Amino acid sequence: MTDTRVEESLFQIIHCYHEYAAREGDAETLSLEELKALLMDNVPRFMETLGRKEPYYITQLFRAADKNQDNQICFEEFLYILGKLVKDYHLQYHRQLCAHYCTQHSLY
Which residue ranges does the record assign to the EF-hand domain (predicted)? Predict the structure, then answer.
């Protein structure tokens, strides 16, 4: 049996996390620079279209996720970041649906 789209996506997220975590220092955590590279390389349109590529956004996201304040993002803390990204993507999805609906029904 082949993996479902969600199963494959989950595997890809885990693989991506470890690929970037292994770049420097502890291979099980992300530094701020590793997190920046991961986000800019893997969700560039999201980072660009929502104005999220600004350095302060990634730094604030890093600080909010770093619950134990060790200046590293472990996988559990990375899940917090993923949650924030998925939430933003979801809001963007709804905005696009609304804009499409309003255009189709002459509400603009």
Answer: 58-88
Q: Which residues contact 29 (CB under 8 A, 6 or more apart)?
A: 21, 70, 72, 73, 74
Domain harbouring 23, CATH code: 1.10.238.10
In angstroms, the first-to-last Cα distance of the chain is 47
Mean pLDDT in residue range 90-101? 75
Contacts of 66 (CB under 8 A, 6+ apart): 72, 73, 77
Residue 33 has pLDDT above 90, yes or no: yes
Contact between 67 and 57 under an 8 Å Cβ cutoff? The reply is no
Distance CA(5)–CA(79), nearest Å, equals 19
User: CA torsion, points 27, 61, 45, 94, in degrees to nearest 10?
Assistant: 130
Tally the domains of the chain.
1
**Mean per-residue pLDDT, 15-22:** 97
- Expressed as residue numbers, the domain containing 19 is 5-105
